[in-house]
Automatic annotation (TrEMBL):
Its cofactor is Zn(2+). Residues 13-195 form the Metallo-beta-lactamase domain. It comes from the Bacteria. GO terms for molecular function: hydrolase activity; metal ion binding. Keywords: Hydrolase, Metal-binding, Zinc. This is Glyoxylase, beta-lactamase superfamily II. It comes from Thermoflexibacter ruber. Pfam families: Lactamase_B.
Amino acid sequence: MIQVHYFTFNAFSENTYILADHTKECVIIDPGCFAEREKNSLKKFIEEKDLKVKLLLNTHCHIDHVLGNQFIKNTYKVPLWIHALEEAPLRSVQVYAPIYGMPEYEPAEPDHFISEKDAIYFGESSLQVLFVPGHSIGHLAFYSAKDKFCINGDVLFNGSIGRTDLPGGNYNILMNSIFNTMYALPDDTVVYCGHGDPTTIGKEKKFNPFCAIEV
């Protein structure tokens, strides 16, 4: 069984995820840790749980989700996996990070490109890769059918949806990702979001004011 742990980091209140199974192997998704206290908090948790970091994943590469990429790469000597379409957004962060008061941002190079045809393996667990663009051009989500959860970044939120006014965003494409990919998951799937509290597919189908459907 995969255990999902998350931390809320940086000025954007971004959720960073650690997924681990009984083997103690884990993956880190969207490390938003930027301040030293945030980095230390994440590192302390991994040390106390005796976890072995195997992989670093980004759902997408907006600034709030990648601030800790290079810290994770340096500390745990693991590769960074992203969708190929997110390479340009990732590289652009170093250009605009100073505008957000983050001139100390350390850019990280991607090591491998993944798509919806791939799967993620760690320990004795696996994650299915879902392609869910709209908030960002190459946005991915990571789904465990066995453990009934999905790490969906900024696609679907508890009572809301991802914004589409940033470069690479597209409202119609986002809604297609929600209706045809996210809503194809079972209603009891727990959705772990890039910001805010978790939700479920069933709840959002019924009550989300932006994308509720008749069920």
